[in-house]
Amino acid sequence: MSLKDNKSTPNWKLKLHEVIYEADTPAGKFFDLALLVIIIISVALVMLESVPEYFELYYWEFYIAEWVITIIFTIEYILRIISIRRPKAYIFSFYGIVDLLSTLPSYIGFFFGGANLLFAIRALRLLRIFRILKISRYIGESNKLTEALRNSRAKIIVFLFAVLIVCIIAGTLMHLIEGETGGFTNIPLSIYWCIVTLTTVGFGDIAPVTPLGRFIASVIMITGYGIIAVPTGIVTSEYNKADSSKDSIKNTQVCPVCNEHDHLNKAEFCHNCGNRLNA
Amino acid sequence: MSLKDNKSTPNWKLKLHEVIYEADTPAGKFFDLALLVIIIISVALVMLESVPEYFELYYWEFYIAEWVITIIFTIEYILRIISIRRPKAYIFSFYGIVDLLSTLPSYIGFFFGGANLLFAIRALRLLRIFRILKISRYIGESNKLTEALRNSRAKIIVFLFAVLIVCIIAGTLMHLIEGETGGFTNIPLSIYWCIVTLTTVGFGDIAPVTPLGRFIASVIMITGYGIIAVPTGIVTSEYNKADSSKDSIKNTQVCPVCNEHDHLNKAEFCHNCGNRLNA
Amino acid sequence: MSLKDNKSTPNWKLKLHEVIYEADTPAGKFFDLALLVIIIISVALVMLESVPEYFELYYWEFYIAEWVITIIFTIEYILRIISIRRPKAYIFSFYGIVDLLSTLPSYIGFFFGGANLLFAIRALRLLRIFRILKISRYIGESNKLTEALRNSRAKIIVFLFAVLIVCIIAGTLMHLIEGETGGFTNIPLSIYWCIVTLTTVGFGDIAPVTPLGRFIASVIMITGYGIIAVPTGIVTSEYNKADSSKDSIKNTQVCPVCNEHDHLNKAEFCHNCGNRLNA
Amino acid sequence: MSLKDNKSTPNWKLKLHEVIYEADTPAGKFFDLALLVIIIISVALVMLESVPEYFELYYWEFYIAEWVITIIFTIEYILRIISIRRPKAYIFSFYGIVDLLSTLPSYIGFFFGGANLLFAIRALRLLRIFRILKISRYIGESNKLTEALRNSRAKIIVFLFAVLIVCIIAGTLMHLIEGETGGFTNIPLSIYWCIVTLTTVGFGDIAPVTPLGRFIASVIMITGYGIIAVPTGIVTSEYNKADSSKDSIKNTQVCPVCNEHDHLNKAEFCHNCGNRLNA
């Protein structure tokens, strides 16, 4: 409701902004809930529409529902632009683009055809859920998790890069050993198989059949089993650290002289200026 | 045996209650053991009955065994109601309903048919095992585990929700890329495939066949490999915390002379000043 | 060489014992190495013999090699009995039985036939490797690991028991939903499928085909993905604890008065008797 | 640029060395970037060449590109030998051999044929990437990871050795139980299947079909599920230790007055008595 202070904005715009962008008032809560239901319905429709039997049976129902939802989303998009003070900031924001992509495909499909390719874009409507959920309740709880993941990102990228190089070399080897027999017809395919195997997914559409190929595959699998521990170890450790650093911030005093924080729990004197701390 | 104080309850009811609900006396222990054996036999019968060859061969044996067990369970159910002071509390409790569902399907099947659909309910008899095992011995040991799981529940739900959204978007993408060729005939099926892949199960009944589809699949798999670390990290960390907080509760002695804490559980003297601790 | 003190044992017996049971002398080391090679050869032969092509081609070579190895093992077994002071203790020990089972199948197969069933027993020869390796070098390093596993055993058993019950209930459900179509012909088979799925193995010989079955399967898979964290969390935590407790033992003093150990690193006085510790 | 001090080396050699071996100067950076691009192109070509359709279609393009790259790599190899003061040290170093193997196969293939077998060796060109990346930026971050992996190496080898022995015994058992029916035609193949199952890969090309075989398979899978925790626990724990030991090395200040340690890195005064620390 920070916009209320601004006297130049008309009152109905402020009210609209409150309803659309916030969830403090009953109207705002109802708006969010209604939007949540429409998004879920629209994504469910996109899914069901892709099943040929349903599509043939309920062609017109899908068609009408699609247009109703598109029009609702279009109205919502226009209202969002109107009610905000700086529309450009919204339009080019992440959610602004997602909102646009939630309505545009239907219009493009109507005027130019090619509905099939636009399916994927319509599924992006799902991303809108994140805004509505305003998952602040959980975010607070998963804050440390995010910090842990951010800290371990660089290490996990190095790790995945190493995994990829192992896959390329092992894939080339498997192509040479197995050749056509097991379905390892070319190197990219063999690399794909290596990734499938090393990640312990194991579809089985391609599988080694020669004894040597199976031996190499065993080595790859046991390696994969051994290195599955690495990302887990990293995340666990970083999560532990994020956890304990969070705790220490809560427990610490701030030096009244030099404003230093980060004191140990048992500290009686400031480690920065030597002043006694008021515990 | 807390009921023994109550003089208004007849003696035989108290005795029955002791035998059925408790396991302190030899009779109570025997009752529990007998029930355990009958439950395991009954669940084993439900399983074997579902194998067509066995069902045809031993039709009458299954039929008789089923009725013997049903009658035993019915008698037990009636005895439980009789022997308890507040039958309603039992009848509508979790185990009361499980007990009822252990006997009812056979009667319904006898009078109305439809035995096949009642299989699942009969398998619920298995849940009765938990009561008998009174797994207090292990529960004590897995207490910290339960605490760790309760603490990490919210975070794991957020995580699984994020995994689901990744699956929906990736599934839609795979349906567009692969189409009919690899078996990705519709979006719900593609999402199912994504879940199968991301969880590293990998049945292989559906598998990408186009180069681009295989590339996307590789990205999904490596992502899955990377994020398998997250729930593990959460549970491990929470388990560690639950563990150390448990320990710290025990160790709350503070030396009355030098105020030192961090004493071992068995400490009788302060390790800092040598003064006797008031345990 | 503790046997050398004993004057009643003839000298050649002591020498033989030293060579066979110990690895301090060059002769003892050579004996162990030779035995290691023979065991590996014998296990490799058992494996190769099972390949029909090799078996037909090299029937006589296998036959002769098998008998040479059996005779060597028989001689070794007799020497082990002769050279030890208390033969009974050896014969009924774990390794004594393994040694006997390494020779007996060949004789039984020769006199009574049935060689196929004796394969498994001959593969037990592999267990003999453990004795020879005397993996003391590594054991020292994996001591904490063993402790961690022992501590987490009870919890992991409870966990696996819970997993099994989930599998039985989910298996029954899948049998009812899928029936014959997906290959879920009976409940034990469906339970087997559930175990395959929950452990993320996913062979794909049985896979759900109905939409509802696939939905339930997705729930099972995501559950499996979530609970794979639990044993990992337990082992990691216990391993950490075993680790830190090991460290504290190294760093601690023993009280000169009451012989108490387990002192904290910073302890200046014994927590048991209050005596000053000589740091 | 340490070579610059040496007056006996001609100036152009020093300059060349700077460009080729270092990345401090703009020329050195450009050289590294150009080489990186060529290596990636060359590896991509090796991959694409293995796809029969592309190979037939673009035979001459591949042929020419291969020779251009080979000549570039040959020139680079010669320049590396010329510009370094001790060529032998380079030639027999790891990267020296990789560099040689990046060029040799093309020449051998030209003079003696057998290009197919030389594919694998050409894929080794990928290893050259590591040198160029000079992944110092990430190495710094994954230093603790390397330490953790080195510390846990022995334990993980013992663990994998135990897994292998379990696989051999379980594989023999499965061969005896399943025989030909499920595809367990010989023991090595059954062991291969056990590794596939225990690592939770599960291709499904071989799968048990008898009830007993499926029961044993279930036991193997649940075992695999339980022991997947072990390497993870080891790595996580060692990573934690490496992490904290890194920190503790930095924090070795001890207060000269009260002997308190546990100071923060930035501490200038003792948090226990307020005395200035001698950093």
Short description:
The structure is a homotetramer of 279-residue chains. With 279 residues, chain A is mainly alpha-helical. Chain A is 70% helix and 0% strand.
Question: In what range is the share of β-strand residues of chain A?
Answer: under 5%
Largest sheet features of chain A: none
Mean pLDDT over the residues of chain A: 76
What is the CATH-assigned architecture of the largest domain in chain A? Up-down Bundle
CATH names the topology of the largest domain in chain A as Four Helix Bundle (Hemerythrin (Met), subunit A)
Task: State the distance separating the first and last CA atoms of chain A.
Answer: 38 Å
Structural class of chain A: mainly alpha
Quaternary structure state of the chains depicted: homotetramer
- Structure summary, number of beta strands of chain A: 0
Largest interface: A-D, 58 and 65 residues
Question: What does this 3D model show about the protein?
Answer:
Chains A, B, C, D: It comes from Autumnicola edwardsiae. Chains A, B, C, D: The chain crosses the membrane at residues 30-48, 60-82, 114-133, 154-177, 189-208, 215-235. Chains A, B, C, D: This is Ion transporter. Chains A, B, C, D: It holds the Pfam family Ion_trans. Four copies of one chain form a homotetramer. With 279 residues, the first copy, chain A, is mostly helical. Chain A folds into two domains: 8-135, Voltage-gated potassium channels. Chain C (Four Helix Bundle (Hemerythrin (Met), subunit A), Up-down Bundle), CATH 1.20.120; 142-246, Helix Hairpins (Orthogonal Bundle), CATH 1.10.287. Chain A is built from 13 helices and no strands. In chain A, helix 1 (11-21) packs across helix 2 and helix 1 crosses helix 4 (59-83). Residues 1-6, 135-139 and 246-252 of chain A have low confidence and may be disordered. Chains A and D meet through helix 10, helix 11, helix 12 and helix 13 of A and helix 2, helix 7, helix 10, helix 11 and helix 13 of D.
